Fold:
Amino acid sequence: MIGRILRDVPRRTLVLLACFFAVLAAVPFIAGDYVLTILILILYFAYTGQAWNILMGFTGYLSLGHALFTGLGAYSAASLFVHFGVAPWLGLLAAIPIAMAVAGLMGFLAFRFRVSGVYFAILTIAFAEFARIGFDHFAWVSGSSGLFLPVAQYAHNDLWRLRGNPMMFYYIILVATALAFLISYLLLRSRTGYFWLAIREDEQAARATGIDTFRYKMMAVMISAGMTSFGGVFYAFYYNNLFPEQVFHIARSIEIILAPMVGGIGTLFGPIVGAFVLETASEGLRVILEAFGIDVPGIKQVFWGFVLLAIVIALPEGVWPWIARRLGLKERGP
Amino acid sequence: MPLDVYLNVAVGGLLTGLVYGLMALGLSVIFGVVRVVNFAHGEMMTIAMYLAITLFSVLGLDPLVMLVPIAAVLFVFGYALQAKLINSFITRPEHSQFLLLVAIAIILVNGLLIIYGPDARNVQTSYSFDSFEIGRLIIDANKLYAAFAALVVTALLFAFFRFTATGTAIRACADNHTGALVVGLDVKKLYALTFALGSACVGAAGVMLLMIFDVTPALGPAYTLLAFVIVITGGLGSMPGALLGGVLIGMTEALAGLLFQPSMKSMFTFAILVLVLLIRPQGIMGRRA
Structure:
């Protein structure tokens, strides 16, 4: 596997990647908690964006309801922890299958009945909204009054129970992002990956060449959901409180897709680059607004909307393909 | 519960549903012709609602009168949006259009938040608490007027598409884009006009809905979703379908709120959406693509 990566990937890309992750790994030794919390957010969106990208970027099915899978992951692991004291890593054994099962159901209904394009997107919203209202009335997880994880000041980091300081969470999400990147790369270069791209480019032609499109679309939606659910588990243990109104809200789904959309849909670096661009712009704006003493709710989002508008008008394929051309690292293939 | 209660709630849902129908009609017309999904639809409606609040508090205009100027403002807004921005996105992939409209939606929601703050607002007219009694049926005057106005606007739109040359030209664009270009129609201009008409519809619907519900900036996305559910239920691109879907969803919401909990009502509308997508994906009145 490693030999293949070394053979297939351009040397410059590998060096750049190694430097990138090395710098990120070194950050906690130089920077304070403030930078760390922003980086955690960036990596969280890079991770979930990478997971979402498998469905939309590789297979061409737009999901606007991925908050459903982060939410299911968050609630599965958190409720097991709160009720039975099950550690999150074991909770993951419930969270991932639950998210994959729900994704399987959604995918089965959608693909069996040939729901695609805008209709598929609306179906995913409907599932997420259904879950939001359902969890609002789900007493075992405290419904709309919210599920709270016990917060305590731990003297040391408890990696097994995910209780600790930002540095621990930072390394967890960093490793997760790196793994998600690697998984995406391997999937994209596998037989399955090529089938996905064929489906994305022309589904009818793909079916005509004998690809079992139903099966591969099911794989895409379930793998994407399973990966996304880990993001939810991380979210639950990092923030320690869960409200259906927030966790399953459509705004969360849109947050998840913004990074890969801005970075470049269907590219491996897109989600990471997009997350960095968006969060940096957003933090920079906050600093500027604070410096001028402007404190109006909503003003940050308005600026943010304009940034998005500018990116979508000026760089329609995303930021990463543009940077890659500048650096002479044209990503091969898609 | 006595039967009257159900009947009253159902009729209330029907009247609200007609206004929903007009809102969804705007989305449906835009999608049917321009083939762009207006993800800022609900946000545009909240703009109309806040315009109505401003006009009401400054000039004391009756909502039924404000309908005309506010629909006109939204018409201009929609025209400018399509002509300046969306026309250049027509040939772009769906997700690119989506991102454009999401950006616009974000700007609109938060712009309203900056100007008006997060609190719920409404208008109180002289007839806010009036009602008509027909036998054991009690009908809110507000809802009745709003539904009536919605029907009038819908009828005007139908007439426009059916009987005017421009309306026919727009339908030609929807039927066959290349054909419309070949016979020399200015498709981009007609697209802008269509988007403007759809925006005017949602503007009018917003003013009427304000007679029934309060408004907050955060309601924008919720209304966008509602409009989608209605349009897909009725059939994307079908005008009678949007109205029918509006009534169906309006009544479902009202009855679900009565039978279960009001907070659970949208679960039922989403359940209907999922059923329709699976059993009849083109919608109740839609043609198969």
Q: What stands out?
A: The domain at 3-279 of chain B is CATH 1.10.3470 (ABC transporter involved in vitamin B12 uptake, BtuC).
